[in-house]
Amino acid sequence: MSEDADESSKTEDPTEKKKEKAREEGQFARSQEINNWLIVAVMFIVLVSMLPSTLSGLQRRLTFYIEHVYQIPMDTGGVGQVLYRVVGDVLWALWLPVVLLVIAGILASVAQTGWHISWKLIIPKFSKLDPLKGLKRIFSGGAQAVELAKGVGKLLLVGGVSYLALLPMLRSIELYVGMDPFGLLASMDDIAFTLLAGVLAVLSIIAAGDLAWQTYSHNKKMKMTKQEVKDEHKQAEGDPVVKGRIRQLRFERARQRMMASVPQADVVVTNPTHYSIALKYDPQTMQAPVLLAKGVDSVAMKIREVATEHDIPIVENPPLARALYATVDIDEEIPAEHYRAVAEIITYVFKLKQRSFGR
Q: Is residue 247 part of a domain?
């Protein structure tokens, strides 16, 4: 398919084949802002529901070191051992919030696109590392320019909200100088709550707008021209010329197999000029006569020629020939309604060959 087609000519909705190919290549209508919003939302929930108890547990652990600081050896081994324990206590207190943030990032991506792994996206493309091409994509307009403008606008909005949230603290920063560490942590908790709430509100608006834009942009990119749709249908259905040739070859092979079975027939029923029906009947192995070959016009004439070459009786019965041609396929037994007429012909033929018709 042509990737350089004029955008104005891409008026057709994408086919299922193109959608499936895009999914295999990792092309989805996804918004990174949704991921950012969900991560901030989880941070906000952790701050409200888990951080107070987490800080309380951390406070109890750190209080021990503060109260017994005089008992800590001031050599390299003693200080290192204390730092090792402090870091372990901090990691133990924060492991669950960190795990929740990681899970939130994964779920945000899966929720938008489903569970898809595209190996084409994993393989590195060194052409993307060229800074000149990157600058050219940015300043050439289109999606890259939109992404740049969106990033700058998001930075300004989040930065402005963050400044307003931190402004009360900046105005009274001298109050934090003499505050005890645990009081300072509680105060930081309140500031973080206000900051995350403001940022979450702004990101909610940004994420909703970005998701709408990404969906529109992806759908526009997936549009196809009328010629692309025709080419894809042709590939799916096959070239009509090739399909016609295949049908012709199959018909010729089927006719050759049919003509090869004519010498096995016991009788050929004719129209006499337009239809020929080759029948076989073995009283010992067959319940009813079987149609070995049939044809009209040139094929009918060829059946009669083969029958003549192999001394097979040819019997004229126009109504029966037409009826058998219309209702019985090759290698099928004749239906019951034609038993009487066929039986009379085969009995006649067997008498000619001095063969016993049997019961």
A: no
Single out the residue of 16, 18, 9, 22 nearest to residue 226, CA to CA: 9
Buried/exposed 232-254: b ≥16 CB within 10 Å, e otherwise: beeeeeeeeeeeeeeeeeeeeee
The residue from 166, 201, 234 where one domain ends is: 234
Rounded to the nearest angstrom, the gap between the alpha carbon of residue 275 and the centroid of all alpha carbons in its chain is 53
Domain count, the chain: 2
Residue 106 Cα to chain centre, angstroms = 20
CA–CA gap between residue 202 and residue 217 (Å, rounded): 22
**pLDDT digit string, tens, across residues 50-105:** 666 666 666 666 666 666 666 666 666 666 776 777 777 777 767 777 787 778 77
Domain limits at 301?
259-352
The model's pLDDT over 121-165, given as tens digits with 9 standing for 90+, comes to 455 555 555 566 655 555 555 566 677 777 788 888 888 888 887
Q: Within this chain, do residues 204 and 55 fall inside the same structural domain, yes or no?
A: yes
| 28 and 167 belong to one structural domain | yes
